[in-house]
Write a structure and sequence with these properties.
alpha+beta; three-stranded antiparallel sheet; 3 helices
Amino acid sequence: MTIEARLHRSQGALTTLSNGKHVWNADVAKTLGSDDLAPNPHDLLNSALAACTALTLELYLRRQRWPVTSLQVKIEHAETRGDDGKVNYQLQREITVTGDLTEEQRARLLEIAEKCPIHKVLEGAVSINTQLS
């Protein structure tokens, strides 16, 4: 699937993103010269993991018919630069599940969270090939 980003320079750095079916926005903080009208790219990356985790768990919970009344996923990140100049991006994921679950069921939910497709992408090797036209 292709994601297209269109920058609206007349609105600071507001950027419209689309996958051809849905449209959403990204922006940067006022301190970076925009109006902070939408999530920044780090928020979008972190939200991909949060959404994928929640959806993966929800699909599993539906199949199992476990008595869960609420599910929340929080993602925080920290960044450092290595001596080679590369960014080390550390994600902290907290999953809160409300429901009458056994310890075994809760442990299984942690295993399922690790199977989220975005989790797998972020832990794997990612390469980016760029061309300017």
